[in-house]
């Protein structure tokens, strides 16, 4: 029996990138919202709500990058040079916000510095990820197994739009996470912010979705040709449904529903991008099969992934379970 | 402003800079994670509060170091693609899956249980918490195993062939992972990590013994660290020697550079203790040498012939001076560690381990020796691999991304500024944490419940004045 290993791996990589986006999305979002909460007590609670899990969330990014090198080395080797500046910016942002988790508790005089590092780093990382996404969607030219475009190709009105969209979207995830994990005034402020971010996120999704099909003839055909046009009706309808659940959850002061609905919006947006992309991994140059490593490499890692990913999901779920419920402001080891 | 440099050189500097910073944190956290597991095991077993106090003390330091390791590690995992894309495309099918396994088996394990280890003692109870600590320690060791398999494969590649696209493709995964230098390199690195941690812990213990701040905890730390130094340092020197013999077999040019052998020695090579390598004249100036000793060490015979760099084409020779010096720095550190370990044994025998101020002062000075040795060792092995990225098969100059010097130069400057600022602050915080060991609390009755909870709320903490949130 012939197993299409590159296709399976495309699915797994897509899954780990999605896992990264929603998981680190909410903890980056908490950082993006930091400037809106000037009270030290609120900031401590916000930080503690993500402190036990942020490291695990970020590991999905390493799996996305490391996995891409392992199974689609040509995609890794052409996308990263093409996105050089946004990737470096993202890394620098992640450095600042990552160390802030510990440093913030180690100094009182320098605390403002690490508050800035957390907020600025999170926002920069989110914006850079959005830029990278936009640059990837608008296409990366490849010749002779190497990136063949210019050094500023990633910077366009479209990629700036996707950058802003990601920042707003992560802020929504962060706000709904805070609704779920905090109490009192802090949760109330989070509700107000989540309400505004809901509309902004769906508006940004709409703009990006309408813009995308005109970037590449392939996308246009995909979204408005038959039979794939079915999706272009269904996905927006589902997005509106998600928005409804989100707003209703916020209005009804429901704890978890807004977060779940916000996750749903991200998943739908992600599926939309997937519909545009398939079968490319580096549109419009490389398909999944062009970029795939030899089957030996794919099979070797697949064995481990099939065994280990369920185990990872299990103990990750356990770690979240251990820290379930509202954050106790008195808690933390600091 | 970077026209004078070529992109390859700048990319190499960037890699060397970021990896040198990065290696510091794993070297420390591999050893510290195991130390934490041992401390918690001792606490559970002996029910002695001193071990829990030590655990909580080092746990905080571990958290800071681990955070720095995570963020500097993410940089490494993307740098292969940004600066070394040709290498990534070609070597990805072989080393990519190994790095994928590192993430799947180690990173997630560490990250998943780190939260429980740091914040969860009062939520999961001591036994599950101990399991979390062991998992974190285990994760650091698995991570070291995979990353050294990758590095060793680049040094002594095996188990592959090359396809029509010029990619290395795996033939035999067993041979890829258990390539000729892997076992030596793994043992050498893990022991180095344990020694590094032992000397940091020892220095911290000695510092507090000198200041008499927390006699009981300081004694426990110092004694444990000195046992490690006395036992592991000689083992490490033996392991290093074996590693050297393995390198001579598979990467002779590297050993020639380490030893400063520009010329072949047909009847017995001398050991050059010190000197100044002069690559223009192909000799070591002002050399202090011991006749025949190099042959004795490397070939176990006084008159064994030893080939020199004159047998290697000029363009395939590694830079001699860097390798020559870094190797000597590593040896100096290693033998100093052995010296301190033996001295501590003598003091222990005399019953003066905890009272000999001179021993304690030297131990404080030796605190960073592990980091120096680790860095020097990596410089020796990585610079010694030049001019190849995949030894004998792929030149460094042919591994670089199609990218301009300005881009690499600008990102290099950004990394330098950010790293010195961020990791400088982290080092400062770690040193301050180490210096602030509170006085021993007397084991009073009725303290049990709070202690076993492990986490005391900020205001109740007797010593947490700095941030008391």
UniProtKB/TrEMBL annotation, chain A:
Keywords: Cell membrane, Membrane, Transmembrane, Transmembrane helix
Keyword Membrane: yes
Alphabetized InterPro entries for the sequence: Cyt-d_oxidase_su2 (IPR003317)
Gene Ontology biological-process entries: aerobic electron transport chain
Localisation per UniProt entry: Cell membrane
Lipid bilayer topology: Multi-pass membrane protein
Organism superkingdom: Bacteria
Pfam family, one: Cyt_bd_oxida_II
Transmembrane segments: 6-37, 82-100, 112-137, 157-180, 192-211, 223-247, 259-278, 298-323
GO molecular function: electron transfer activity; oxidoreductase activity, acting on diphenols and related substances as donors, oxygen as acceptor
GO CC list: cytochrome complex; plasma membrane
Matching NCBIfam families: cydB
PANTHER family found in the cross-reference section: CYTOCHROME BD2 SUBUNIT II
UniProt similarity note: Belongs to the cytochrome ubiquinol oxidase subunit 2 family.
Name of the protein in its database record: Putative Cytochrome bd2, subunit II
Organism encoding this protein: Sinorhizobium sojae CCBAU 05684
TrEMBL record, chain B:
Biased composition (Low complexity): 457-469
Principal localisation: membrane
Membrane-topology annotation of the record: Multi-pass membrane protein
InterPro entries noted in UniProt: Cyt-d_ubiquinol_oxidase_su_1 (IPR002585)
Any one annotated GO CC term: plasma membrane
GO biological process, one term: aerobic electron transport chain
Listed name of the protein: Putative Cytochrome bd2, subunit I
GO molecular function (one): electron transfer activity
UniProt subcellular location: Cell inner membrane; Cell membrane
Disordered: annotated span: 448-469
Keywords attached to this entry: Cell membrane, Electron transport, Heme, Iron, Membrane, Metal-binding, Transmembrane, Transmembrane helix, Transport
Transmembrane segments: 20-45, 57-78, 98-121, 128-149, 186-210, 222-239, 322-347, 359-380, 400-431
Lineage top rank: taxon: Bacteria
Family of the protein in this entry: Belongs to the cytochrome ubiquinol oxidase subunit 1 family.
Sections of the chain in a coiled coil: none
